[in-house]
Fold each of these.
Amino acid sequence: GAVVSQHPSRVICKSGTSVKIECRSLDFQATTMFWYRQFPKKSLMLMATSNEGSKATYEQGVEKDKFLINHASLTLSTLTVTSAHPEDSSFYICSADRDYYNEQFFGPGTRLTVL
Amino acid sequence: GENVEQHPSTLSVQEGDSAVIKCTYSDSASNYFPWYKQELGKRPQLIIDIRSNVGEKKDQRIAVTLNKTAKHFSLHITETQPEDSAVYFCAARGYGGSQGNLIFGKGTKLSVKP
């Protein structure tokens, strides 16, 4: 139990295009999901908190118009990187809070490379 | 807000020895403390967690201790094996009601030498 999937696992795109990343909790409901960015050999940097049925809460310094988050159901959150640029290249990981258990489980991550 | 400090940043031990990683936190309201193991290029995996109503929790070769008065918690790995080599992250958050997000330490790279 407590499996989180994330797709795609790897994406290479041209500068200026938009990329959508999906995060799904497969066997539990998650009212709250989180999106992180991780640079090589660094810790997880929280980008935003995604709440089902309401607007996401973004961390300071994260552009909400660039990183669009939608949490349409209790099992799905999406992150869209709009007009991607090379500096957006990174490892993006989502996580999901298992409702009532206060445990957080991570997706496998998405490696984004913007050329 | 919460701030989590983690030490050491790197740790090298001989197979069979024990490894200890320590974290401190600043917000006395935090009462949930998970530990994650992350292998290169993979997702962080929850390996053990502790809540503020207990002082110690053990699961086979790993254990976590919590000192709420001093606001620190530690991960203990006994009889280390090469497959324990990874980056370990501690984290802290509030519990129940407005749960809030996890605040992570900077990570400890553990190397277990055969």
Amino acid sequence: AQKITQTQPGMFVQEKEAVTLDCTYDTSDPSYGLFWYKQPSSGEMIFLIYQGSYDQQNATEGRYSLNFQKARKSANLVISASQLGDSAMYFCAMREGPSYGNAGNMLTFGGGTRLMVKP
Amino acid sequence: DAGVTQSPTHLIKTRGQQVTLRCSPKSGHDTVSWYQQALGQGPQFIFQYYEEEERQRGNFPDRFSGHQFPNYSSELNVNALLLGDSALYLCASSSGDSYNEQFFGPGTRLTVL
């Protein structure tokens, strides 16, 4: 089974509107972390936001927020007030295991969603 | 504060050749991971180095090998290149004290002809 599923290959949003990018995950580990990255056409993966499995509140970073629904195993990214510069690929990723220590912290990525912001 | 750096930016090789890619982690980070991203796909984990040893490995053949130096920088070596090795190779760094952040470098785009 896919560990990270992003069901929206591409999405359009009007400038200044909010958009939600979907991500569902699959793990049996009680300790895990969820990441969202933005990848512009230049190729660099830009870290946006992180949510730990034990975090009680949804993570927020500026215009980015993570809608974490643990029982549904979903971790959707919400971008408010979209800007033209938000046009890029967006990847959801998961680390299984604790957030520190010697176990390592490999990430498993989804297939990504291409977001296009219309002026 | 320099972020993660990678070299070279682009590389063209022919089948059967060998290639070495380099990565310097973000200041304060001691763990380096390598990912392969084929066109149109999400990154795939190759391996991770910590304290100069390979700590985790993804589902990649032995043609992919690596090294970490005492200053935490790392190399990725690929032998006997195949056309399918053409991809963007991304390096990520993190700290063993907290896995809540992993920062990526700009990547090396490898083309195998």
